[in-house]
Automatic annotation (TrEMBL):
It is a peripheral membrane protein. Residues 4-240 form the ABC transporter domain. Pfam families: ABC_tran (PF00005), oligo_HPY (PF08352). This is ABC transporter ATP-binding protein. GO terms for molecular function: ATP binding; ATP hydrolysis activity. Its main location: membrane. The lineage of its organism: Bacteria, Bacillati, Actinomycetota, Actinomycetes, Streptosporangiales. SUPFAM superfamilies: P-loop containing nucleoside triphosphate hydrolases.
């Protein structure tokens, strides 16, 4: 059963198109990693799930449904109920996501209600020190503040947790500890996770499925180990080769050539075509439709041909 469905979602900012017909599906109890370069549309899509986009954003088309509810069509009262009952959010900057004028305990009580056992919820995220309850956010380390944010997000056992680069500002050891907390709490509560991340190896280890974004669209999706270990889209393959965390010690990284697009409207063809070594003439003016390759859904005109060549160990011709 689908908990989250995104269909042909188009989001515009002044002079910029952030989402250009994005499609995504997340099932109950599933963990999904959303990956891609900065500017691919990940954060916009994550914010759209809860209708948390900034005021300048305009939905130019498409829809988002959470637990069967049309997010963009709900009146304010029903939207608040949807966020409270079904959704939890953990953002990149833990300090900025907390109220600087309130003690941690008071903020948790706002979420849980008067008389709630604040210590229990902090203990679940490995914050057993009673001083944390009385602390203000600025008195906490980044890792501690992020644990508080996770405790608040998971306190009501949401059906879906949207985690937008929740460990980006943390060092590697704290990062693993925080991710362990997120995924263990979610598993205990049966919470689905939409995890926005640049860490491809971590996504492969922790997520059931992965969706790869480029130019405001999901260009490949499927089982995480299949997509990242045997990609069917040229962009996914290039992204995997450029990931520092996945490279062997001493190995030379292969950066994705060129720069991500800055769209001002609908892309006339494949947005990756200017950077793709396999692009042909139709890629420039014809938008690719999804095709099924192995267990993946792929937006690429040559996906079937490229998959055959890669299976045979041969490099496809650049022009055809």
């Amino acid at each position: 059963m689908s908990l989250l469905t995104v269909r042909n979602l188009v989001i515009d900012y002044p002079q910029t198109r952030a989402l250009d017909g994005a499609d995504l599906e997340l099932r109950q109890g599933e963990t999904l990693g959303l990956v891609g370069e900065s500017g691919s549309g990940k954060s916009t899509l994550g914010s759209a799930v809860g209708r948390l986009l900034p005021g300048a954003a305009v939905r130019a088309g498409g829809e988002v449904t959470v637990a069967g509810e049309p997010v963009f069509d709900l009146p304010p009262g029903k939207l608040r109920h949807l966020r409270k009952k079904h959704l939890g959010f953990v953002f990149q900057d833990p300090i900025a996501s907390l109220d600087p004028t309130m003690r941690v305990g008071a903020q948790l009580r706002l979420v849980l209600g008067r008389g709630a056992d604040v210590g229990f919820h902090l203990g679940r995220v490995k914050l057993d020190d009673a001083r944390v309850v009385r602390a203000y956010p600025h008195q906490l380390s980044g890792g501690m503040a992020q644990r508080v944010a996770i405790a608040m997000a998971m306190a009501t056992a949401p059906e879906l947790l949207v985690a937008d680069e929740p460990t980006a500002a943390l060092d590697s050891q704290v990062r693993e500890e925080v991710l362990n907390v997120v995924f263990s709490l979610a598993a205990d509560a049966g919470t689905s996770i939409l995890w926005l991340s640049h860490d491809l190896p971590a996504v492969a280890r922790r997520c059931d499925r992965v969706a790869v974004m480029y130019g405001g669209r999901v260009v490949e999706s499927g089982p995480a180990r299949q997509v990242l270990g045997d990609p069917a889209h040229p962009y996914t393959a290039a992204l995997a080769r450029s990931a520092p965390a996945a490279a062997a010690r001493g190995a030379r990284l292969e950066p994705v050539p060129g720069r991500p697009p800055v769209l001002t409207g609908a892309s006339p063809g494949c947005a990756f075509a200017p950077r793709c070594p396999f692009a042909v003439e139709r890629c420039e003016h014809e938008r690719p439709a999804p095709v099924r390759i192995r267990e993946q859904d792929v937006l690429c005109h040559r996906a079937g041909e490229l998959a055959e060549h890669m299976t045979a160990g041969r490099r496809p011709e650049v022009s055809a």
